[in-house]
């Protein structure tokens, strides 16, 4: 993998929140003087009762629990709204950019957000919702989605956001799993100019969900929907009838804030539970440190609110920090692949945070779509979701950021609440493809298959040795699954399920999912390395690599390759790519099979589902063998791959 080095730009080093020494000292303190460190860090939040306790977690079976700030009392919506009113009530809190560039954006000041959220909260109360109830939110990327989260937080209801692209079945499964009593949806959503029938999907889902008593419907497009008497209410009608004041519920730091299901890349999605105090602190602190957030910055996290990235970096982190956060309704490549950069110019955005999958898709279309925009407002660029191939990293840095914007590659999970390993722009020299160093309080370790801790430069399983404030507290309704999934493989540690390499500078490189590690003739290889070598080739847009049984080598390497726009598959190219990987990494990594794939199977959150690719490579293609495919974005992709499998 690339060992190129990009030092902190002088402009950033000058007045960064933390410089190199500052980051190192802060980290040391967070470990050596943890209790006082976290009491002090906790002061960035507005507590009803300031906590005097910090970490009381234990990963040991006997007294297993995750607990932070347990004597603190807080309301999350107050932290995200009310406490900013005196100082920046008239500052824009949310900029909303619609799906179509032909439409006008909308802006909401903190004062306006306060009123919207209070009314929404009163509507929820009027519909019978109370503290501790679960509320499922199935909305498009409209401002009401942010209001809905905050309204739940205000009254102490536990929200469970389900991505608006999920089917009625997937929605029903998530409603049933957490026993929601209320659903918030919209008439329709819009993506890339097409309407998504959200309300109709809810109607279909609710055939199977007896727990739901009320459905609150946002009028988003004005499309025709059926309203069920006694169950369905229009938000705008109800909001006009209730007070614009809603006193916030007093919550314990450990009271649940939300449930969110993981992406389902490696199996059945898990209902991750996060609580109020620790989660909010983690989201706000990492938003400030990783992105060197300063008052007045225009911040854009281009994720969907249906994923943890949207929760932590569109809503909770930025609003807790009093930021201006941009919400975008549409997709990155519609109407053209320039759309993201045009939005940056339109709103003079300082920082964009997106996923490698989006970057690879845009790269594929050529540089012209980027270079025809200005992007002068950009100061830094972020990425999350999958290992970023060094090739994509360099493109993001050079073409998008014109070599002036640090790339903040944040490694984390739904389970970790917010960023765990990431650069800070003024403190961390960058290496393309490395998420670099741990955040305060995070103790990553690399262990071998037996759980032996490996020191200095090493490669193996990435685990976290002790708790951090934003750690998930349980799998909803299945505390045993929580313990079994994350704390039994390597007892006493949190198992991430990801593989990592630590280099001589202590930098971490995520090598892919542990389940995806390939063992060729006794050599263990992460998928990320081989994929990155393939993506480096000028004809390749994206690649996914898996192992399959091989008589001689134990496992062979099977590569699925998506070509750049205007490239044609050929036997010649197949041979070229094989030789290319051989030169880039070594003979051991030479693919045994290369299948050209028009598209790769991805989760709705844009992650490659290698477990399905592994099954296809193994020749196991029954629905049962393919496992849970409910979070697949486009099931037809799988049929194409099965039909064109290499090696018969
Ligand atoms: P499931 O747990 O249901 O299989 P998932 O792991 O894809 O789904 P998420 O919580 O959305 O669900 O994703 C977290 C995973 O994404 C991480 O474990 C890691 O594999 C990958 N990931 C996220 N950010 C990065 C990054 N910056 N570099 C490398 N990998 C990343
Ligand atoms: Mg996971």
From TrEMBL:
Cofactor field: Mg(2+)
SUPFAM superfamilies: Acetyl-CoA synthetase-like (SSF56801)
Stored InterPro entries: Ac_CoA_lig (IPR011904), ACAS_N (IPR032387), AMP-bd_C (IPR025110), AMP-bd_C_sf (IPR045851), AMP-binding_CS (IPR020845), AMP-dep_synth/lig_dom (IPR000873), ANL_N_sf (IPR042099)
Domain AMP-binding enzyme C-terminal: 529-607
Post-translational modification comment from the UniProt entry: Acetylated. Deacetylation by the SIR2-homolog deacetylase activates the enzyme.
Residues that bind CoA: 191-194, 309, 333, 521, 582
EC number: 6.2.1.1
GO terms (BP aspect): acetyl-CoA biosynthetic process from acetate
Catalysis: reaction(s): acetate + ATP + CoA = acetyl-CoA + AMP + diphosphate
Residues carrying N6-acetyllysine: 607
Gene Ontology CC terms, in alphabetical order: cytosol
Keyword tags: Acetylation, ATP-binding, Ligase, Magnesium, Metal-binding, Nucleotide-binding
Domain of life assignment: Bacteria
The Acetyl-coenzyme A synthetase N-terminal domain, residue ranges: 25-80
Residues annotated as binding ATP: 385-387, 409-414, 498, 513, 524
A GO term, aspect molecular function: metal ion binding
Ranges in a coiled coil: none
Residue intervals of the AMP-dependent synthetase/ligase domain: 82-467
Residues where Mg(2+) binds: 535, 537, 540
Free-text function comment from the UniProt entry: Catalyzes the conversion of acetate into acetyl-CoA (AcCoA), an essential intermediate at the junction of anabolic and catabolic pathways. AcsA undergoes a two-step reaction. In the first half reaction, AcsA combines acetate with ATP to form acetyl-adenylate (AcAMP) intermediate. In the second half reaction, it can then transfer the acetyl group from AcAMP to the sulfhydryl group of CoA, forming the product AcCoA.
Family to which the UniProt record says this protein belongs: Belongs to the ATP-dependent AMP-binding enzyme family.
Protein name in the entry: Acetyl-coenzyme A synthetase
């Amino acid at each position: 993998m690339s060992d190129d080095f990009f030092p902190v730009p002088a402009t950033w080093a000058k007045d960064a929140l933390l410089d190199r020494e500052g980051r190192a000292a802060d980290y040391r303190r967070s470990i050596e003087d943890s209790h006082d460190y976290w009491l002090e860090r906790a002061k960035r939040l507005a507590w009803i009762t300031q906590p005097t306790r910090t970490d009381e977690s234990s990963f040991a079976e006997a007294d297993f629990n995750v607990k932070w700030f347990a004597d603190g009392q807080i309301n999350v919506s107050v932290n995200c709204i009310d406490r900013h009113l005196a100082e920046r009530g008239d500052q824009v809190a949310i900029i909303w950019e619609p799906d179509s560039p032909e439409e006008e954006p909308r802006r909401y000041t903190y004062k306006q957000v306060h009123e919207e959220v209070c009314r929404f909260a009163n509507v929820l109360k009027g519909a019978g919702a109370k503290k501790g109830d679960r509320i499922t939110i199935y909305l498009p990327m409209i401002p009401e989605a942010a209001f809905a989260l905050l309204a739940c937080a205000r009254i102490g209801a536990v929200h469970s956001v389900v991505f608006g692209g999920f089917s009625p079945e997937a929605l029903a499964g998530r409603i049933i799993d957490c026993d929601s009593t209320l659903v918030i949806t919209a008439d329709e959503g819009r993506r890339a100019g097409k309407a998504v029938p959200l309300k109709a999907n809810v109607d279909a889902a609710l055939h199977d969900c007896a727990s739901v008593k009320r459905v609150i419907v946002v009028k988003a497009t004005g499309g025709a929907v059926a309203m069920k008497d006694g169950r369905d209410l229009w938000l705008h009608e109800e909001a006009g009838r209730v007070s614009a004041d809603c006193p916030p519920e007093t919550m314990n730091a450990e009271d649940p804030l939300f449930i969110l299901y993981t992406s389902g890349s490696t199996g059945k999605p898990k209902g991750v539970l996060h609580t109020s105090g620790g989660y909010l602190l983690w989201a706000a602190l990492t938003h400030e440190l990783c992105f060197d957030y300063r008052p007045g910055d225009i911040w854009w996290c281009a994720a969907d609110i249906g994923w943890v990235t949207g929760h932590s970096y569109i809503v909770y982190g930025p609003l807790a920090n009093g930021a201006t956060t941009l919400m975008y309704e549409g997709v990155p490549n519609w109407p053209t692949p320039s759309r993201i950069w045009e939005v940056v110019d339109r709103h003079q955005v300082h920082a964009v945070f997106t996923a490698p999958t989006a970057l690879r898709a845009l790269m594929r279309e050529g540089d012209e779509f980027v270079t025809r925009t200005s992007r002068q407002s950009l100061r830094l660029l972020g990425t999350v979701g999958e290992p970023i191939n060094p090739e994509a990293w360099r493109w993001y840095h050079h073409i998008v950021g014109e070599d002036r914007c640090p790339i903040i590659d944040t490694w984390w999970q739904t389970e970790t609440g917010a960023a765990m390993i990431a650069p800070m722009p003024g403190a961390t020299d960058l290496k393309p493809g490395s998420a670099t160093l741990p955040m305060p309080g995070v103790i990553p370790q690399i262990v071998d298959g037996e759980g032996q801790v490996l020191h200095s430069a090493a490669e193996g399983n990435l685990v976290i040795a002790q708790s951090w404030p934003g750690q998930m507290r349980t799998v909803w309704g299945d505390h045993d699954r929580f313990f079994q999934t994350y704390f039994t493989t390597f007892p006493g540690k949190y198992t991430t399920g990801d593989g990592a390499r630590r280099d001589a500078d202590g930098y971490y490189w995520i090598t892919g999912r542990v389940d995806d590690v390939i063992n060729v003739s006794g050599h263990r290889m992460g998928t990320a390395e081989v994929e990155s070598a393939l993506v480096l080739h000028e004809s390749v847009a994206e690649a996914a690599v898996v192992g399959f049984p091989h008589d001689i080598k134990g496992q062979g390497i099977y590569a699925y390759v998506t070509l750049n726009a205007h490239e044609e598959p050929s036997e010649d190219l197949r041979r070229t790519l094989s030789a290319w990987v051989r030169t880039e990494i070594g003979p051991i990594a030479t693919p045994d099979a290369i299948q050209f794939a028009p598209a790769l199977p991805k989760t709705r959150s844009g992650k490659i589902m290698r477990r399905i690719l592994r099954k296809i490579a193994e020749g196991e293609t029954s629905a049962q063998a393919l496992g849970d495919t409910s979070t697949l974005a486009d099931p037809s992709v799988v049929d194409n791959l099965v039909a064109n499998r290499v090696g018969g």
